[in-house]
């Protein structure tokens, strides 16, 4: 079981950031003491592979992750080539993430498939094999390869994690991925449930929405979290599965039915926020991280609050990281 002293802590590069700022942000994260710097690839913002390359070449120590590449957006052989190239730019420092992708985005660009589960497993099988130096031929439902091998496989195979949420996807992740990346207001109960599916020999990384700030800023933080939940929980995808494992979910859902998801979230008690994100004071945020690690998380990457991502990263480095090094 991971302890606080052995856990990794990172910072995410907000998808709204201009591409040109990635070098400064990566260097700042490294100088601030973070272990990892994660690039967020969301459609249709900035592209993750090029940003990850810039971050790797601009830094010396920090690990750089790329989450999450939709498996249907690139041919698996090309995905393996890109991962291998990034891994060779800085051996031992790159971590790749692949997932289903947001299905509405996949439909927008004509890449949706009838079975996202099947294409996820087929893609992982091929990418993992190619990165390990194998020569592959396969004729799957979605992935076909004829005598394919990487001419320049990575000297050190990088980890490839699955960005997934639900039970069927997690079962696949446990079989074919090196780890799992969790997002959308993760709570300790959800982590324990995920760990029971993926097994012990499997890294769990959490992208934690950073809602930390002085008491005077809590109103803005609440509105930000409320707006997110209103968009996600009230949208076609429904409530995130992670939130359904929170101890207060039934009461929150009942409140949302009487008013709205936004109003229900904005009016949540502090202790509810404390269960789903690094919220409030640095001490509160540290308590959340402690609870995640105790539940089985190996790494936490803080996702900046959308209102002011630059200051959030600096604030977390100065105020939160020292509290996490006490373990």
Supply database-style keywords.
two-stranded antiparallel ribbon, 327 residues, TIM Barrel
Q: How many separate domains make up the residues?
A: 1
Estimate the strand proportion: 15-25%
Query: Structural class, judged by helices and strands?
Result: alpha/beta
Q: How many angstroms separate the termini?
A: 14 Å
CATH architecture tag: Alpha-Beta Barrel
Q: How big is the Rg?
A: 19 Å
The helix content is 40-55%
Count, helices: 13
The description of the largest β-sheet is: 8 strands, parallel, barrel
Q: In which order are the strands of the major sheet placed? A: 1-2-3-4-7-8-9-12
- Rounded average pLDDT: 91
CATH homology group: Luciferase-like domain
The secondary-structure element order is: EHEHEHEHHEEEHEHEEHHHHEHEH
CATH class annotation? Alpha Beta
Which fold does the CATH topology refer to? TIM Barrel
- Model regions low in confidence, pLDDT < 50 over at least 5 residues: none
Give the strand tally: 12
Shape: globular
Structure, explained:
The chain has 327 residues and is α/β, with parallel strands linked by helices. It contains 13 helices and 12 strands. The strands form 3 sheets. The chain has an 8-stranded parallel β-barrel with strand order 1-2-3-4-7-8-9-12, surrounded by 8 helices. Helix 1 crosses helix 2, helix 7 packs parallel to helix 12 and helix 12 packs across helix 13. The mean pLDDT is 91.
Give a quick rundown of the structure:
This protein is of the alpha/beta class. It contains 13 helices and 12 strands. The longest helix is centred in the middle third of the chain and has 16 residues, at 116-131.
